[in-house]
């Protein structure tokens, strides 16, 4: 009887752990994307020359393209920031 309850409890906690892992992964990737967006914005500030097509519209599209690039780079885990954050989140979740 207790083994049936234990196995039922383990089955119930498994999806929660999987959902928690997915949430940690998404949070870590989102954090990496924020860092990469800031890095790209800082890189854009260092202009060597005036933009030929300089307008607020082109600035908006450039910012959107940079945001998309940062999201893609974070999803690919190119820099390893998300991996480090995820390890820290797992350690904090395991400690509590």
Report on the biggest sheet: none
Shape: elongated
Structural class: mainly alpha
In sequence order, what are the helices and strands, one letter per element? HHH
Give the fraction of residues assigned to helices: over 70%
Domains, number: 1
Task: Give the tally of β-strands.
Answer: 0
Structure description:
It is a single chain. The protein has one domain. The chain contains three helices and no strands. With 96 residues, the protein is mainly alpha-helical. The model is unreliable at 8-15 (pLDDT under 50). The protein is elongated. The longest helix is centred in the N-terminal third of the chain and has 44 residues, at 2-45.
Provide a short characterization of the protein structure.
Helices cover 82% and strands 0% of the residues.
List keywords for this structure.
single chain; 96 residues; mainly alpha; 3 helices; 82% helix; elongated
Spell out the blueprint of helices and strands:
Elements: H1 2-45, H2 56-75, H3 81-95
